[in-house]
């Protein structure tokens, strides 16, 4: 299997996984509102997921580097399935907290697993395409299927409302459909994924070496490329989380009680279909800037912040949705460039751990964004919180200008 074939098949596999996710993610905030949750309660529920990821992220990443990425990924799928089941059978604040704990555990366990497997398999496969191009191919395919999942969810909501079903019943249909997809992901991963390296068998004694593995990953993050992109990413995450988690709240205000639940899935579908185009545009930017990935990211983030500002200031429901689509499209720009910088600066022995560290930094920023919206919106308004997060994200542009991020890729053991 050459690099192009690997990227294609991995993209299709991740696409099925994203279908399971995006049948549920677009309706998550409306579902919690349907449970009778207030904005502060939703903030606490969402923060539960982020905090869980923060606690478990590095230990599970270190474990994946030792016992194998496939085993750990399969466990994460089981946690995701449990999360959906809790939402189905415990529709309350407690149910929301427990579900997001399980979902957060799933995210923490899975991060740094299959991405590390893909990078190592990609590097050992024949072919001339770059890792950035490989990630772009994966992103194009996975975004397409994520959009399909969101579109199916929108169809469930729109068709169900037309036939007289209540929104709560239709949310349950989406959750059950997501569960079926997760079961398929589990079976395919079990049968298809073959690890290239020999890993240690799992044992409780092995857990004692996880702190050492974590320390190795943290030390690896001192690489001059890694610490810069991690810090820059941290600055951009609060606005991404604040908009992703709370745009439905603003939409509900602007829609003035109209039955528009189907809009959530349709909106995410459009943004992810456009995400495939964003992957192609990232390839074009990479060629335009002669593979200087820092400049690619700087331009991508600048466009994203302009789009976020215009979106935040919109006061018309139709323009609000259209501008959200534009903003979310920009959110996909530069992802493959970021992944190339991350993985070209990381050694195989700590790849899962560093990827988990990357996810940990992302989740810390996400918790900050969720808490700022959940509690700050009551005092200065949701729109003003968004604008504050945008100002914070401007700092990332200065890191992406660094010459360290705009030169030929260097080996993972480069001097710090």
Helix content: over 70%
Backbone structural class = mainly alpha
- Round the Cα radius of gyration to an integer and report it: 20 Å
Strand content: under 5%
Remind me, CATH topology? Growth Hormone, Chain: A
Number of strands: 0
Overall pLDDT metric: 83
Q: Give unreliable regions as ranges.
A: 409-416
Which series of helices and strands comes N to C? HHHHHHHHHHHHHHHHH
Sum this structure up briefly.
By secondary structure, the chain is an all-alpha fold. The protein has 17 helices and no strands. The chain has a single domain (about 5-195, about 210-405), classed as Growth Hormone, Chain: A (Up-down Bundle).
List descriptors.
disordered C terminus, 416 residues, 17 helices, 79% helix, globular
Characterise this structure.
- There is one protein chain.
- The chain has 416 residues and is an all-alpha fold.
- It has a single domain (3-196, 208-405), classed as Growth Hormone, Chain: A.
- The chain has helices at residues 3-22, 28-34, 39-67, 69-89, 93-110, 114-124, 131-162, 167-192, 210-220, 224-255, 262-288, 293-312, 317-332, 335-344, 351-380, 382-393, 396-400.
- Helix 3 (39-67) packs parallel to helix 5 and helix 12 (293-312) runs antiparallel to helix 16 (382-393).
- It is globular.
């Amino acid at each position: 299997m050459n690099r192009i074939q690997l990227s294609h098949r991995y993209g299709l596999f991740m696409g099925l996984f994203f279908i399971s996710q995006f049948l549920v993610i677009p309706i998550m905030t409306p579902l919690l509102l349907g449970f009778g949750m207030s904005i502060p309660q939703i903030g606490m529920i969402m923060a539960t997921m982020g905090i869980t990821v923060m606690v478990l992220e590095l230990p599970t990443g270190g474990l994946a580097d030792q016992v194998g990425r496939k085993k750990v990924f399969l466990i994460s799928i089981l946690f995701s399935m449990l999360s959906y089941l809790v939402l189905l059978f415990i529709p309350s604040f407690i149910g929301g907290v427990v579900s997001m704990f399980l979902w957060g555990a799933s995210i923490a366990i899975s991060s740094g697993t299959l991405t590390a497997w893909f990078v190592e398999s990609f590097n050992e496969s024949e072919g001339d395409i770059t890792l950035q191009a490989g990630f772009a191919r994966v992103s194009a395919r996975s975004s397409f299927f994520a959009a399909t999942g969101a579109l199916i969810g929108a169809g469930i909501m729109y068709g169900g409302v037309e036939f007289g079903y209540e929104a709560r019943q239709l949310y349950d249909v989406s959750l059950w459909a997501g569960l079926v997809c997760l079961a398929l992901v589990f079976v395919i991963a079990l049968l298809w994924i073959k690890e290239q390296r020999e890993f240690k068998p799992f044992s409780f004694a092995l857990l004692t070496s996880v702190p050492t593995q974590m320390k190795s990953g943290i030390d690896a993050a001192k690489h001059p490329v890694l610490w810069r992109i991690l810090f820059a990413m941290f600055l951009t995450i609060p606005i991404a989380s604040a908009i992703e988690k709370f745009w439905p709240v603003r939409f509900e205000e602007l829609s003035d009680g109209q039955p528009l639940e189907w809009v959530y899935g349709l909106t995410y579908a459009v943004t992810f279909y456009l995400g495939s185009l964003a992957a192609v545009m990232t390839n074009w930017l990479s060629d335009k800037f002669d593979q200087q990935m820092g400049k690619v990211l700087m331009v991508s983030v600048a466009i994203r912040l302009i789009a976020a500002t215009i979106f935040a200031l919109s006061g018309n429901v139709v323009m609000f949705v259209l501008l959200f689509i534009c903003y979310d499209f920009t959110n996909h720009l530069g992802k493959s460039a970021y992944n190339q910088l991350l993985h070209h600066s990381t050694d195989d022995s700590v790849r899962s751990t560093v990827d988990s560290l990357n996810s940990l930094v992302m989740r810390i920023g996400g918790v900050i964004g969720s808490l700022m919206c959940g509690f700050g919106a009551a005092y200065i308004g949701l729109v003003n919180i968004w604008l504050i997060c945008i100002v914070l994200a401007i700092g990332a542009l200065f890191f992406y200008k660094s010459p360290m991020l705009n030169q030929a890729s260097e080996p993972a053991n480069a001097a710090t």
